[in-house]
Amino acid sequence: MIILSLFHGGLRHGLLVTKGLRCCAAALAVSLCTVPLAWASPESLLAKMTLSQKIGQLQQSHLEAVTAEDIPKEVKEAIRQGRVGSYLNINTVAVANELQRLAVEEGPHGVPLLVARDVIHGYKTIFPIPLGQAATWNPDAVEQGARIAAIEASADGIRWTFAPMLDISRDARWGRIAESFGEDPYLTSVMGVASVMGYQGKDLSQGDSTHIAATAKHFLGYGAAEAGRDYNTTYIPEPLLHNQYLPPFSAAVAAGSASIMTAFNDLNGVPASISSYLMDTILRQELAYKGVIVSDWDSVVETVVHGGAEDNKDAAYKAAKAGLDMEMVSTSYADHLAALIQEGKISELEIDQKVLRILRLKAQLGLFEQPYTDIARQAEKKHPKFHQTAKEVAAQSLVLLKNDVPSHKKAAKLGKVLPLKPGQKVALIGPMVDAAHDQMGTWAMDGEKQDSITVLQAFEQAKVKGSVQYRYVPGLDFSRDKSTKGFKKAIKAAKWADVIVYVGGEEAALSGEAHSRANIRLPGAQEALLAALKQTGTPLVVVLMAGRQIELHDVLESFDSLVMAWHPGTMGGPAIVDVLTGVSEPVGRLPVTWPKMGGQLPMYYNHKNTGRPPQSRPFIMMDDYPLEAHQHSLGHAATHMDAGYLPQYPFGFGLSYSEVHYSDLAMAKRVLARDEAIRVSAVVKNTGLRPVTEVVQFYVQDIAGSVTRPVKELKQFQRIVLAPGEAKTVTFELSHKDLMFFNAKTQHVFEPGAFRAWIAPHAAAGKPLTFTVR
Ligand code: BGC
């Protein structure tokens, strides 16, 4: 990479860069040029800026332009006058370079722009949606995905992404659960840190222009939208906020996330984008966060709509005072900050602090030394190696949820339906067998469907290799299709086959921002098609692609096998076929609790026990109620009389093609002094015939606290590989600090006492042992 070697040998932030060559558009088309301006440091630059130029740095504007010629006159003028510090939604190098040229050559003081884009789960090479990435339980996979996304995006001049989204998501109705790492604060923290590292590298200021700044979002509590309806009000009491919703952000801050985005929601009565509790008290004071705080799209002026500010001026005032640095898209800062300063409501010093943080980020990214992107880097996008990594990550994201021996006699002889057996005739049915666009999922803005390899294409490749034979009949044209006209042909194919592979679920557009659902069952006529297929007696393998858990309750019975594929991205097809045929082992585990019915939501494993947990109380399901039953005869437990209290599948669950046995849960010492290491071990054995990658999970319950504690919490996990017959002793070690939590006064405390510990394959498995820390 020429750009890197030149840069490494050359300029560094903090050094005085002397006047060099002037760039011209022609020079940009061929290679690099040196920046025209002398600058010493963000502080010295700030000293030269006028108030309006400073306020300009706080503005992030939206621009959609494909070529440099598309850049409107007003945009050019705004840059020349220093009225914008950043643009979002640029995705071509020509536009990025021309914007930078305008800024550094024609703008005041030559301050480069931050070119930003939502690069969420890949740029050109699309990886599984974040929820799918979380299902890998493999932070290395997440880091590699973000690294590749950063290389591809930076080749187009993008140096700032709005990812990772770290919102704890306990409600599958919420469309943005797809963009999350699930319901657990620890898993989300681990994956969030991996993602930040992948985008930014170890140190953003190392001068590597293939790294980009990350944004931990949305601060805070956005995932708790009431009824899972996007943008809805949130109420999250302390200490829940600190114990469940904050930890992934604390971890991202510690990992050096360059920016944090405020959320759209009203949290406990204060819209997040004007909340001084969130930005000042928590971020700046508690977490000592030094990076840039950016709003969400229009979220500052929307605080007026929330009823949190009187008008845009009041919103600008409240946002600025609360600690917001940069305003995304809306212009309340640009329109009102100068007047607010003149009126003495805000001081210029406060503005200076915000500007400095933005200039420092630009400096960290090396933009003062090299604002331009070498167009030769275009060749770095869509590298075959990236596709290979995307396939591996997609394969790891698949969760095998069910794999039975079919009841059908002939088929039963072959044992469990998956992996498929060589030579089997496969009927490929379902609306997502050939869904090049939809398999990329939500927020795949720059993914191109012609780069996707679908399940159908992957079966064709496998057929060419002689490993499968198949017939493809979609049955339904798209996931919401309600027409049954394709059923007849699908049934015919099913009768011909030894096994049906049904690929369905939800199109990409049924999850993601503003795409929440009240009914989370399979859309369209899919349930009817599945019922008809079951009638044929041919074993039925169901592969679901979806941005959330799907309510399967009464149709699940008819599946012999179920694989959750989320939206697996560009290489979803080959990854799925590899797992179905046993070329890859299924290794994914659920990063969310899977409800039986939508009415159970929100549902999460780390809930409180209640005073009447169903495990300890009798209760009767609705259909068993006697007529005119007496109110008190039915049991009084925290349950639904039609759904019970258990999920369909617990958090952390996932099968493999082998069998794994846990035993010998042990602690050398059960009573420990505060500073002693808490070591718990168990023996994990592969008792089956195939290799496994087992995600060994370590949960702890604090039995009693000054505020009641969850029934269990994931503290650590290890991914271990076991050959058939192999056993390993897996040890986890905690310190008492890992058992600390925020109490009712929001103090981070350790409370001595009794705890339970589990080492288990998922959140609902295993028997705990008890220990005491004094
Ligand atoms: C979303 C953010 C996103 C921003 C910029 C908003 O609607 O909530 O997550 O980064 O748009 O596209």
Secondary-structure blueprint:
Elements: H1 2-9, H2 25-30, H3 42-48, H4 51-57, E1 59-62, H5 73-80, E2 86-88, H6 93-106, E3 114-117, H7 130-134, H8 139-154, E4 160-161, H9 185-200, E5 215-219, H10 240-245, H11 247-254, E6 259-262, E7 266-267, E8 270-271, H12 276-286, E9 292-294, H13 302-306, H14 312-322, E10 327-328, H15 332-342, H16 348-364, H17 384-397, E11 399-403, H18 409-412, E12 425-429, H19 455-464, E13 469-473, H20 487-496, E14 499-505, H21 526-535, E15 540-545, E16 561-564, H22 572-581, E17 660-666, E18 671-672, E19 678-686, E20 692-702, E21 713-722, E22 727-734, E23 741-742, E24 748-749, E25 753-760, E26 769-773
Parallel strand pairs: 1-2, 1-10, 2-3, 3-4, 5-6, 6-9, 12-13, 12-14, 14-15, 15-16, 18-26
Antiparallel strand pairs: 7-8, 11-16, 17-19, 19-22, 20-21, 20-25, 23-24, 25-26
Helix pairs in contact: 4-15, 4-16, 8-9, 8-17, 9-11, 12-14, 14-15, 17-22, 19-22
Bound molecules: beta-D-glucopyranose (BGC).
Beta-D-glucopyranose binds next to loops.
